[in-house]
Amino acid sequence: MPLSDDLRDLYQQVILDHSRNPRNHGEIPPPCLHAHGDNPSCGDEIDVWLRLSEDGQNIDDLKFTGQGCAISQASASMMTQKIKGKSQAKAAAMREDFRRLVMGDGTPTDEDSLGELVLLEGVQKFPQRVKCAMLAWRALEQALESGKV
Amino acid sequence: MDWHRIRSDFPILDQQVNCHPLVYLDSAASSQKPRAVINALSHYYQHDNSNVHRALHELSSRATDAFEAARKKVARFIGAATDDEIIFTRGCTEGINLVANTWGVQNIRPGDVILITGMEHHSNLVPWQLLAQRTGATLKHIPVLDDGTLDTAAVELLLTEQVKLFAYVHISNSLGTINPARELCAKAKAVGAVTLLDGAQSTGHMPVNMVNIGCDFFVFSGHKMCAPTGIGVLYGRYALLESMPPWHGGGEMIASVTLEGSTFKEPPHRFEAGTPDIAGVIGLGAAIDYLEAIGLENIQSHDTNLSNYAMQCMSEVPGIRILGPQSGHRGSLVAFHLDFAHPHDLVEYANTYGIAMRGGNHCTQPLMKRFKVPGTTRASFYFYNTIEEINRLVEVLFAARKFFT
Predict the structure, then answer these.
(1) Is 0.90 topped by the overall pTM?
(2) Domains, chain A, ordered by start
(3) Could you tell me the CA-to-CA distances from B159 to B25, B164, B189, B387 in Å, in that order?
(4) CB–CB contact A70 B345 (8 Å)
């Protein structure tokens, strides 16, 4: 059966691969920062664990667990790959760029640094799925917030 | 029956969605409306629109007559003893909250038990949680077995004389289980418990008769049975309604008002404060006329054929797990989980082929936990659906398997 282009864009092979074989999947033992994110209306859940560098500037390690649709799980998996090793400031900038990308809300300031995350741009055409794509990113933000005194 | 001709009564079904013919399999969430109902609304607004019960002018008496005639139709439709047992609400949720906040607050005491089942829609769970918190009562539930039916042994244990209210669903919106309403009401009556039956998925799909079932309260929503959204019914045995205090105060529900206090009308008007959804009530009456012309037995048997056929074809999809009773007597819906795609991904995928289904927890989160699934996809049928549409669904499920694995 012929597939619509929008759907093919939404579920590209790379995205399906991340959802089936999530990277950085698992928990980080304490001490670490942790946040739980969920979309109560659809039941998607993501837990994000991260460890900061000694000076608190860098995200040295980042993992996630969760269950949900392919978009939420792939976004989480791809996020951990891209954010791990980055500074908190860079992570915040990338989060905003990613949000712009999936919401079609302005141009990302540094699209190149998003790497294969740009494959999730197809979510733009499915406004109800934006919250799926953003779930892990919201949890990441909460985890970082929880580390601030 | 000429089901294809009946299907053509529903103008909305004749359209393309995403370049494919619409296949509407979400009637358990909300049914489509036949031309007869749409025309009744349009006729009311074009010719008779006015407020009911108050003015003496011609339009008001026409509106009032049509409104009260619909109440009579509802009473006959569900086999109530009198018209005065029919209270118009916005839907099941409002009806249940009305009972919780009037009869419940008046009669439930600390230590009493409110009994429900493990397959309730949140609308027949949360109001009882709130009532239990408010009154100091205990909320208990009858567990659901692996096959999606109620644990009948637990019914015997849990239905004790402490139970003051037993509220349960007639047909589960998440499993398709048809609960033995009459038998359960008889058991409840034997221990002196009042019963509330949630008829959201049964009304309009099968004949329902209050005297026959023997429940004390019954709720249903119009929009799931070809009527407009925003209109529903609470049935209550008159002796109970008569003893209940008002819930919402305002116009329409009072007998006399002074600045110091008020007296209230007899049921059902005591529970219908403010201007009601007049057009909705008239639309509900038109929907009842329409369904009765086809015949509820005919609708039930067609629904059953569709869902049995769907069960049979869908069970051939590799990796599918169908929840609820696997055969025989079940409601017209099939809820399932696929090991290769999350419900939301599947619903999105099917939508691009014009198929409308629902994915998620279906407002039954405890039940999803019970069956250890993150959610399910639900294909639900009504008499306007066809075997060809089910074939189309199955074809798309096989294609989805190829796509997602």
Answers:
(1) yes
(2) 5-146 (3.90.1010.10)
(3) 37, 9, 10, 42
(4) yes
Q: What is the pLDDT of residue A9?
A: 86
Element (H, E) at B284: helix B278-294
Query: In the annotation, is B185 catalytic?
Result: no
Burial of B120 (C-beta count, 10 Å sphere; 0-12/13-18/19+): buried
Contact B360 A42 (CB under 8 A): yes
Given CA atoms B149, B336, B167, B199 in this order, what sign does their dihedral have?
Answer: negative
Judge residue B111's burial from the number of C-beta atoms within 10 Å of its C-beta, 0-12 exposed, 13-18 middle, 19 or more buried: exposed
Domains, chain B, with CATH or none: 3-30+296-404 (3.90.1150.10), 38-292 (3.40.640.10)
Distance from CA of A65 to the nearest CA of B (A): 14
Angstrom CA distances, A113 to A79, A90, A143, B367, stand at 12, 10, 22, 43
Complex ipTM: 0.87
Residue bearing the bigger pLDDT, A89 or A43: A89
Residues of chain B neighbouring A44 (CB-CB closer than 8 A): 344, 374
Can you list the alpha helix ranges (DSSP code H) found in B11-118? 35-43, 58-77, 92-99, 105-107
What residues are paired with B335 via a beta bridge? B378
Mean pLDDT of B105-109: 98
Angle between helices B278-294 and B35-43 (to 10 degrees): 150
**Contacts of residue B375 in chain A, CB cutoff 8 Å?**
42-43
Q: How far is CA B404 from CA A21, B317, B340, in A?
A: 13, 14, 6
Q: Is B344 in contact with A10 (Cβ distance < 8 A)?
A: no
CA separation for the pair B94, B90 (Å, rounded):
6
CA distances from B75 to B62, B69, B70 (A): 20, 10, 9
Q: What are the φ/ψ torsions at residue A44 (nearest 5 degrees)?
A: -70, 140
A44 CB-near residues (< 8 Å, 6+ apart): A38, A66, A67, A68, A69, A72, A132, A135, B344, B374
Which residues of chain B have a CB within 8 Å of the CB of A7? 348-349, 352
Task: Quote the pLDDT of residue A6.
Answer: 84
> HSE (CB half, 13 Å, CA atoms) of B346?
31
Identify whether the C-beta of residue B306 lies closer than 8 Å to the C-beta of residue B352.
no
Residue B219 predicted with pLDDT over 70: yes
B interface residues, A as partner, C-beta within 8 Å:
18-19, 341-345, 348-349, 352-353, 359-361, 365, 368, 374-375, 395-396, 399, 403-404
User: Each residue of B235-245: pLDDT tens digit?
Assistant: 999 999 999 99
What is the token pair recorded at A99?
């949000």
- Asked if A138 is an interface residue toward chain B (Cβ–Cβ < 8 A), one would say no
| A6 at interface of B, judged by CB pairs closer than 8 A | yes
To the nearest whole percent, how much of chain B has pLDDT over 70? 100
- Residue A149: pLDDT band with limits 50, 70, 90: low
Residue B327 confidence (pLDDT): 76
